[in-house]
């Protein structure tokens, strides 16, 4: 990793020598550490001399909050602002947050000309104007759209500022298409999530700073290594049981910590366990934050019917046992919410697996649970997640299944607990398939590699293992 | 690999014979392709050892480098190769048709020369030849140059570079490897790595009795492979026991050594040459798919554009693409990939079966049609069509689906959206037709399927749309290093932070 963040918020978890932040006095309060980091980011964005500022944000570290705050402050300072996100769902979410945070702020939602181009909830905000033409939104303080839509905009005048959200998931060529629209930009994203990809080979450009299939941040920093880089140091989403594992397994050189302490997040059930393995793994996850439901070793098709059925049963029992998720309030006391279907998600590696789980849930009469692939769960948050392990039942470990970001997304969506469903034998499978990707000159090697991250997660999960023999 | 290909491979493994993976031929085959079988020297990057080249199956031209480390011999070889290949590569330049594009009239060559090599590494070798020769200077260009290249060699380098680059475009056919062509159309019961061996691959395909019964790794009593590899790399046993002593005899100037070397190199090339033509025979038994001509037309445009660049006296292709060119190439290749996948599926029920099994399409019989119209002053037809199908497409509510309209209706495309409301009925899917029904209140005759009709809907678009434009190279933004030609042009990522390379030492010039 080149150029670790030098913002003062890196203190608390940084071990000696991990980065410049380690030399500072540790900040005990996570809120204060995060506030310091945010203040430094806003200072560079509003008053810095560089054309770009990069912010690395681990899962649930308040990236959206930062984007909303930066947008409001830039608008308040009189800078016309364009915001670039990667998907329509992200754009709608951001516009909604902006409108809730500041109902007076004039916000434009630039959208496509397809049917149903944006979430109708935006129509409830009087300060939000929607249009498929950039010209209709000229003069608004903030205009938000996807990178794909911005690429079609031909602007006479440049925006003075831009915010690029999910910049690590944006491809370099997408940035090339929109970078002429703004003078300066704040790039925000999570380096640990899935890298952008291309359907066709792009090896011929590997190692070039502007490799069109690389991430936007790689290209940006390749050409502008002097840009200030910041890091948000606290994950507010991940519970105390998950942050250390996710930090160590996926962010070994840029550690972060959880904003909540041991025991601040609880998960309890009104209906006691029925003695089955499914209930046992739910109880284990409720107590420890992690549970591994392990099916007997077997090579299976991708849509392993037994594993899919096990996932569906876990979800059904999670919802049937009258779960309650408790979060300690800052001033004392506990907020308790019923664990309803919309607070639970299932994550898979492949679309056909997601489709199989959806069908299995429908057969069990379970509705309203989000079931999707890692790519589509990126950036989302749930109380409890059930994950079908990407390597479960596989005869081989391909680079797709070993991709660090895939496992990182799946293992970092939850606020309370995560249940992983997997066939036994994955550690042996990993050992039989060491990473054998060609090394390309000029390409910065990414750490950790998926092989190592997979082993780290499995080693941790082994302590929360519940064997399960499907009947 | 799609489920249907996996099934075909398993069937091939069980029967010992290749199974069809396509019902039509998905790549253009020229009437008179040029076949090029190159060999390279082990341990010496970019040093050709020999080649068979030509358009006549019975009379290939053998070119050899009798001492691969002798650069004079190497350039004599490349000069001969230019003389052999350029007449073919330039043969279609002058036969043109004109095409009206808006106000502009453009020329389009009516045909383009095709180049076939045995395998993927053969394509890489073509690129390598292009890279190593297109910047060479001839005596005509630069009388001062100490080692002038043969007159037409840099031109060959530019053509080979163009063909090598075009070969990266999915579905293109200017330069094709035979193994890839065969693997696209037939499934064998061996691994994908083994499929890269042309001889082993054809062993699954050719009628029994026309192939060796031994495996591709079988050797004779002297330890030599019965079937030499299809190159460009040679077999180490051949290098060590036959080639090296023969080169030594040649270096010593012994009589007959040159002829012996030619014989040896030919013995490694000729079996592959014959297999290439047998593979072509097999491919020609398949009728061409419907989209093949369209993709070949794009190849002809690519050929014509390169011809124009050469004629305009433009310099050879740069060493690296600039940021805008790289992004534009990637975008056009992604579009070509989507177009290829859609066209293959529409041309070939076996390809469509793969998409149906992957949940990207569904086929079935229409069981119910309910006419409906839009509300408003000028009602438009929006009929509901219910299809009985055993497929399980990954449809979401109001998800778009597409189909090709029947030929009797005049072809064209129709879009519809998936309708979720109403009770779920097993095996029945309902879509609402949106387009392709003409302009009137009543849908045009034949544009709405009737109960009993077979229909096939796809979730992917049949003609994928192009992306937005990119800035001109001179407007490359600061995020990508600014316009090319500046100091930050084409920096490897590592070069920004990496220390400078070690200073050159005397050993570097050994």
Describe the structure.
The complex is a heterodimer of chains A (471) and B (510). Chain A is 31% helix and 20% strand. The radius of gyration of chain A is 22 Å and the shape is globular. Chain A is an alpha/beta fold and 471 residues long. Chain B is of the alpha+beta class. Chain B is 35% helix and 15% strand. Chain B contains twelve helices and 15 strands. In chain B, the strands form four sheets. A six-stranded antiparallel beta sheet of chain B has the order 12-13-14-11-10-15. A five-stranded mixed beta sheet of chain B has the order 4-3-2-7-8, sandwiched between helices. Chain B has a two-stranded antiparallel sheet with strand order 1-9. The longest helix of chain B is centred in the middle third of the chain and has 28 residues. The two termini of chain B are 48 Å apart. At the A-B interface, helix 5, helix 6 and helix 10 of A face helix 10 and helix 12 of B.
Write the layout of secondary structure elements.
The complex is a heterodimer of chains A (471) and B (510).
Chain A lengths: L29 H18 L4 E5 L6 H14 L4 E5 L2 H14 L5 E4 L17 E4 L10 E5 H4 L8 E6 L7 H7 L3 E8 L26 H8 L5 E3 L2 E2 L7 H8 L6 E2 L6 E5 L7 H12 L1 E6 L9 H16 L2 E6 L5 E5 L5 E5 L2 H13 L6 E4 H4 L4 E7 L10 H4 L1 H7 L3 E10 L2 H7 L17 H12 L3 E3 L4
Parallel strand pairs in A: 1-7, 1-8, 2-5, 2-6, 3-4, 3-5, 6-7, 9-10, 12-18, 12-19, 15-16, 15-17, 17-18
Antiparallel strand pairs in A: 11-13, 13-14
Chain B lengths: L2 H13 L3 E2 L13 E7 L7 E7 L6 E4 L6 H19 L6 E6 L2 E6 L5 E3 L2 H14 L19 H14 L8 E3 H8 E2 L10 H8 L30 H16 L5 H28 L7 H20 L11 H25 L1 H9 L3 E10 L13 E5 L11 E5 L8 E7 L8 E6 L20 E5 L34 H5 L13
Parallel strand pairs in B: 2-7, 7-8
Antiparallel strand pairs in B: 1-9, 2-3, 3-4, 5-6, 10-11, 10-15, 11-14, 12-13, 13-14
